[in-house]
């Protein structure tokens, strides 16, 4: 009698689409730190897939912007930047601040919070 392996829930992935026409080799950086394929990310079609939470700060609301402009408050939200060096038509190019697409559930943890919050 053969037992099948338990079904693993699909891992949450934060997807970063590569620029149109980008060709390997890729050098990937998150917040300026070099990333290694197979360790920090995987190629997923024409995108990079990260298993660790990545977040963009998003747009600031009027009151938040005003409080920063008046030096009343600062902003300490998580704001990851994904940069990629790639080849296009034989020339090296760099794309900075690429879009980060969170998992379908928005990256929520089991307790309802957002992954990576507070770092």
3D architecture notes:
This protein is mainly beta and 119 residues long. The chain has a domain at 14-95. The chain contains 1 helix and 7 strands. It has a 4-stranded antiparallel sheet, with no helix packed on it. A 3-stranded antiparallel sheet has the order 1-5-4, with no helix packed on it. Strand 4 and strand 5 form a beta hairpin. The protein is globular, with a radius of gyration of 18 Å. Mean pLDDT is 79; it is low at 1-9 and 115-119.
What is the element layout, followed by pairings?
Blueprint: E1 14-17, E2 23-30, E3 33-35, E4 41-43, E5 47-50, H1 62-69, E6 82-88, E7 91-95
Antiparallel strand pairs: 1-5, 2-3, 2-6, 4-5, 6-7
Structural class: mainly beta
Work out the number of β strands: 7
Oligomer: single chain
Put simply, the count of helices is: 1
Question: Secondary-structure element sequence?
Answer: EEEEEHEE
Q: Please tell me how large the radius of gyration is.
A: 18 Å
Largest sheet: 4 strands, antiparallel
Q: What is the end-to-end distance? A: 48 Å
Shape by Cα distribution: globular
Spatial order of the strands forming the largest sheet: 3-2-6-7
Please state the average pLDDT score.
79
- Fraction of helical residues: under 10%
Spans of at least 5 consecutive residues with low confidence: 1-9, 115-119
Give the strand content. Answer: 25-35%
């Amino acid at each position: 009698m053969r037992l099948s392996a338990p079904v693993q829930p699909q891992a949450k992935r934060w997807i970063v689409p590569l620029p149109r026409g980008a060709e390997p080799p890729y050098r990937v950086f998150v917040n300026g730190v070099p990333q290694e394929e197979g360790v920090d990310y995987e190629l997923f079609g024409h995108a990079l897939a990260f298993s660790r939470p990545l977040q963009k700060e998003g747009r600031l609301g009027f009151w938040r912007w005003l409080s920063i402009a008046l030096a009343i408050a600062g902003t300490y939200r998580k704001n990851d930047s994904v940069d990629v060096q790639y080849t296009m038509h034989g020339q090296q190019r760099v794309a900075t601040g690429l879009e980060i697409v969170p998992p379908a559930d928005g990256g929520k943890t089991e307790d309802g919070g957002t992954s990576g919050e507070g770092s």
